[in-house]
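Q: What would this chain look like folded?
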Amino acid sequence: MSRRSPGRATKQILSGDQLATHVPERPTVPGADFGSHLIQWYFVVLSALLLGSVVAWAIWGMGAASPLLFLLAVGLVASWIVI
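A: My prediction, written as structure tokens:
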């Protein structure tokens, strides 16, 4: 067997328990309840769209409520697909 010269680079194979875990580089990491808060606010926004469309329909008629109802429909379809 021949000896390697000291200047030659060598590879080192590490097992999984020898590797150090890396801390996330972001200063703030979303908590475990981040998803539930996001879903809660999503449905609050959908409820506000429903309430706004009812008020717009009662005051100005269906023409004014149509854009709000369209946004509500898109939001409901998106929640059905995503959630």
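The helical segments are 34-60, 62-82.
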